[in-house]
Amino acid sequence: MRLNRCVSEPISIDIWSDIACPWCYIGKRNLEAGLAATAGDDDAPQVNITFHSFELSPDTPVDFEGDEADFLMGHKGMPRAQVEQMLDRVTGIAKDAGLDYRFDLLQHTNTVKAHELLHHAKAEGRQQDMEERLMSAYFTEGRHVGRIEDLADLAAEIGLDRDSALEALRSERHLVDVRADQAQAQAYGIQGVPFFVIDGQYGVSGAQPPEAFAGVLRELWAKRGQDAEVLEG
Q: Structure pTM?
């Protein structure tokens, strides 16, 4: 049997993230930039991307009273001036990744329902579109991503059936999937996000630069080709 590098099995990229994590959106953009950098290769790496649920602050109320600085002051015990300086720094890094963060508009909320919606979208084959819509809504548009009705609106905006999304959220049918992702994260020892598991064997923590992702993917894809050549021989 002959195997060809170009038909090698795609590289799996499993990403644990929270849509309320600013570094997760930056990491997503950096991964996309890394993939774009490899797209022109003669034998560009092929990938399958799957997002997994991770709640950074599961005790956060759906309707948090206060702005992002208020939340971080209470959550991290930092003075407002230090928090605002940190948010300015993150905003600048996001800008470099092509993202216009608006912490002045952001509505902090509990994200478990957003994670349930992501699993609903996954079942409909639209998980990546839903991930992008939720993160953009949260970080750049000041939309609420914790209430069921608002989430159903966002689902409809990417072409999913609004009533079906509402039913999935109200029934909590995907809560078990959220908990399974969280259990897997615990088994892997993941304590912070974003966390990328590549090909089920390489763990990459944090919002790495695009060139880091491109390098790992090229290395793995080249190894696939070498393995295929061995089998051909």
A: 0.92
- The residue type of 184 is Q
Q: What is the mean pLDDT of the chain?
A: 93
pLDDT (tens digit per residue) in 178-210: 999 999 999 999 999 999 999 998 999 999 999
- The pair phi, psi for residue 147, each rounded to 5°, is -90, 140
> CA-CA distance, 123 to 120, in Å (whole number)?
5
Report d(CA 87, CA 68) in Å as an integer.
Answer: 9
Nearest to 154 by CA among 125, 122, 131, 178: 131
Q: What is the DSSP letter of 166?
A: H
Domain spanning 11-232 has what CATH number? 3.40.30.10
Cβ–Cβ under 8 Å, residues 211 and 72: no
Ordered by start, the domain boundaries in the chain are 11-232
For residue 177, the Cα-to-chain-centroid distance in whole angstroms is: 16
